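hiii so my PI (J.) wants the whole complex modelled not just the main chain, which honestly fair. so below is everything: two entries, each one labled with what it is. i double checked the lines twice but i was tired so who knows lol
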Amino acid sequence: MNSAEPVDPPGGEEPELNRWRGTATDPEADRSRAEETTPEAVARLRRHSRALLADLLRPHRGRLAAAVGLLLAQNAAAMAGPYLVMVGIDRAIPPLRAGNTTPLVAVAGAFAVAAVTEYAARRGFLALSARIGQAVLLDLRQRVFGHFLRLSVGFHERYTSGRMVSRLTSDLDSIAELVDGGIDSLVLAALSILTVAGILLWLDLPLAAVTLFAFPFLFWLSRWFARASAGAYRRTREAVALVIVHFVESMRGIRAVQTFRREPRNQRIFVALGDDYRQTSLHAFRLIATYSPAIKLIGNVTVALVLCYGGWRVLGGRTEVGVLAAFLLYLRRFFEPMQELSQFYNSLQSATAALEKLAGVLDERPAVAEPARPVPLPTGSGHGELTFRGVSFGYRADTPILAGLDLTVPAGQTVALIGPTGAGKSTIAKLVARFHDPDAGSVLLDGINLREVADADLRRAVVLVTQENHLFSGTVAENIRFGRPDADDAEVRAAAQAIGAHDFIAALPDGYATQVHRRGGRLSAGQRQLVAFARAFLADPTVLILDEATSSLDVPTERLVQRALGTILRDRTALVIAHRLSTVETADRVLVLDGGQLVEDGPPAVLAATDGRYAALHRQWRDSLV
Amino acid sequence: MPVESDGDRAAPVAAGRHPVHNLWRLRRYLRPYAAEFAWLLVAGLAGTAAGIAVPLVVQRVVDGPVARHEPAGLLQLGGLALVLGVVEAALIFIRRWVQSSSAVGMEAALRADVYAHLQRLPASFHDRWQSGQLLSRITSDLSVIRRFLSFGVFFLVLNLTTYVVVVLLLIHLHAALGLLVAASAVPLLLITRRFGRHYHTASRRMQDQQGDVATLVEETAQGLRTMKAYGRGPELAARFAAGARTLHDTGVGKGRLLANTAALLDLVPNVTLGVVLVAGAAAAAQGVLTIGELVAFASLQLMLIWPVQSLGWIIANGQEAATAADRIQEVLDTPPQIVDAPDARVLARDAVHGRLRFERVDFRYPGASAAVLHGIDLTVEPGETLALVGATGCGKSTLLSLVPRLHEVTGGRITLDGHDLRELRLASLRRLVGVAFEEPTLFSMSVRENLTLGRPDADDDEVRAALALAQADFAYDLPWGLATRVGEQGLSLSGGQRQRLALARAVLGRPALLVLDDPLSALDVHTEALVEAALRQVLRASTALLVVHRPSTIALADRVALLDDGRIAAVGRHSELLASVPAYRALLAAEPPAGVTDATPGRTGPAAPDASTPDGWGLVRS
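here's the output for the full assembly
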């Protein structure tokens, strides 16, 4: 770094790094509503995540039962090993000394059967459990994704795309890790512990009693771990989400990052966030680093006790050497899976924390809900009357944007909305597109409250084109077809031609089949606007809303677009928010908004002749022309 | 396939390279933890030794005190077993405690390095790579590597050691039986080799598909409003379902592969145990082996089951880590093309006059067949404001992006006061240039942080001046003033507000060169007039290159350059061009030319009388 470069003062680094994010206007910006931090909310979420798990597993009941059957078979076969060793030593060696090989052959045969059974059952079980696990993941992934799509724009603006990405990648990874790493081993270990406990009891009751002595310790230890790790993993999930949000945002804005030499500061922030994540992970890992050896300790102490006590019993002739040997072997099989169990318990806790996050998302009710009994919109031409009836709306409760707005736009009218920033122009557009529902009053299309219109009907009737013009990965044709998925190639081409986008598309390397890489990186902003217009043109809505949609076009192209839309939408309703008076002048009617109020309303020519705001703007615009 | 693949993905392992080559290259991230790793191995091996010792103690108990009826010896050996047990647990504790810190430390360091490298890679790289693929590398792939380097490698070493030690002990206990057990390593080796090969391919496929799914999610999150506006939820859900389904199928395939191998790995030690039992029983019957030895032999052999069984998972984990390392190295191995020359110099702000010259500049996007800019010759004199005008998609924004070197010229050169931009330090150049893009990029951070992006040292006065100039004083009225979080989260700003913040960012600290891409496009007429008046002052003090679409904004410029299909078609004063260049008139005339108003919509290029020229749709050539 050269001397001309600003360097952060080394002191004051810490508070600096915490301050960069600023304060969100919504205190709940960082989480879904279900994820409050009160103990009741935590318990409720836990319940919901369990219910979610049960719901996910329900369709697989049959396969689960089969898996458990295979598991039992495998377990039984695996348990036969040490037992057969005992039988071999106690029952087969003495006859063998006498020259009788039959018992040994029988034992060997049983051993072979056990080994083959274990092989087949294990193979079947693992394959089956992978199928179940993957099916559950697929189901969960689709549910969460589908739910994210249903949630309102308001939710997403609060939650941010990075966090959505984090939920659908990192959180699902952590559940997948459990699925891959062996929910099967979890069950198997638990089963083998139970079986071994049974065998131990059957082998030698007093020795088993000594073993049982370990149980309260195991129980107490596990409860401690469950509680501590649940909190720890929850924090891990939150920390990694922040890492992902920062990562996604800085990669998306890489041009700004590089141009403004943001790299060093971004690096410091990323390292700090990464460090938070490291700390929370470390905390979680240290819990398991304590839990797992503690289990081992209990096991080892028990083995030593059994060894002494068992040896003493053999000395006293109350039990056989073979029994002691088998007992000690089984004891290993008892505590060994306990180790595995602690490991998988750990994955389980991590997956549970992730599942809770997902349950929190699934608990979120869409603020803009699909009506229970949708009312169909009238079909045919001549429709598209928009009515605002006493509409009040604010993004936050304390700052209303619209207060009791009344407005009627007759079908087929083209209305230009103008007014200073914050006047509520875009808000009106968003309310018509039902990105939000009004706080009070109602927005009606052809006399039907938008709240009662099915989403599919509303989207067919109303299309909003903004400056944003997102292009999805895929071809140019696919992006245009986004407006009407059933359109054929000729219709796509016709739409592009009508809007004046055909020539530039035809000049692309693969024409309409050109892939728009990564959010249309290769198309200019103006070209993206053209594609977006072709999309809207193809969608052919009853009501078209243009929110600063032509800002990046050169004047002739803009005119071409307007004329094309004007023709196709001559009998449609249109709301146009534009800053160019050339656009405004072609409207049937101009609405001047200020502070959420309609201050002027009339045909452009009439308003221009008065001495109102529109007239002033009109004069300004005329003057600006050289 | 719902997602197109990226050009760079799935680069096959270079010929002659070992599959774990890239994983091995990551070893330097373990170096800071070398001491810890030594501890780990010592603790791990000692712990295992303690574990192995217990069955031997059991053998002594059975053969010694129990056989000879010595209660005192029993207590002694019992005590020994207890001590060994406690030591084993303590060693495991130490190992895991140390392991956890080195594992997450290594992961964090690697992640920070990947991020740093990504920040250095040029815009063209980011255009080409989907961000979901990058994201899955710094999350999923890194945690796979972390798991392997912390647990996998360790258990591989530990379990192999355990295996060898136990087999040696078995040979020591009984040579013939021991060698029999040793022979079982041959099938194990064959099974694991075959498995490793297949699993390698499967895990790479899975990781790439995870990246695809992440890309789909990221993209949907980005285009959410567009999706809502068209009600295309079902289509996107179907697209996602297809991606998720592919991932599912790969996952099931991987699971089957693992199931087959894991079951085989279970079978081999079991069969061996059976053979040992039969042979051992025969030996014991002949009196060559004591019963205690046989018990110890069998119980030692049972200790082999876990290391062998876990081999499947360790190898699976290792293969995943190897492919994850490949994916990460693909990024780290991409050289940043736009870097400081070895002798790059720093230009101080005060020493800059601000003469910006484009000399026969060509530009072609990497991988594209056609150039976007051809032989651009253009000079912006110190203090001059030059407006760049042209039809949509003619290369204006691309031209601007060459000034802060977001892209590198592919021919000719750009100079600032006679210095080739490539001879300047990147940081120095970018400090001299203030840029506002056509799309105002805001991050979910405080307003202040968004304004001062790379200049955390900017003081309150500078910030205030910049905000005033961009008519963005509204920022002070936000709920928490400049500390309010804006961007995607927290507060939705209107297009005009975002643009004004972006403009304030560009003019902050009065840069020597201003590069503004249609800086007033989203402003309402009233605000536009105010910003224009304020901009006029700034523009007097610096050299500026503006992209302009609207006739009203042209007034800001001293001269105008008309860009047509990547070439400079004309340069001059607005009034001159208006009078002498018909194409210019067509683009910027206040009133649409007669031919345009009367043209029938729906036909291509109605604005161009000679619609036969491929670029005629935006320009009138009459």
